[in-house]
Specification:
The protein is an alpha+beta fold. The protein has a single domain, classed as Translation Initiation Factor IF3 (2-Layer Sandwich), CATH 3.30.110. It has 2 helices and 4 strands, in the order E-H-E-H-E-E. A 4-stranded mixed sheet has the order 1-2-4-3, with helices on one face. The longest helix has 12 residues. It starts with 7 loop residues before the first strand and ends with a strand.
Length: 78
């Protein structure tokens, strides 16, 4: 898929809002500036939620994709 260097992966599959966002925040808090978190969710609302969260926090979604009901986000800590 991508050759982005991921520092940490977060599996939020099967979780509903707001858990994917809460767990993403906790994971991002543990990373250093510039590191990448890969988060995978199955909640369709996660697309809008992650976009909103990214704009609010300043962390950048460098790539996102959707495959077979799974939504994957690569988030760079700012």
């Amino acid at each position: 898929m991508s050759d982005i260097k991921v520092k940490q992966e977060l599996d939020a599959r099967g979780m509903s809002c707001p858990l994917p966002i809460l767990k993403t925040k906790k994971a991002i808090d543990g990373l250093a500036k510039g590191e990448i978190l890969k988060m995978t969710a199955t909640d369709p609302g996660s697309v809008a939620d992650m976009d909103s969260w990214s704009k609010r926090t300043g962390h950048k979604i460098v790539e996102q994709s959707q495959t077979d009901g799974e939504f994957t986000f690569f988030i760079k800590k700012q």
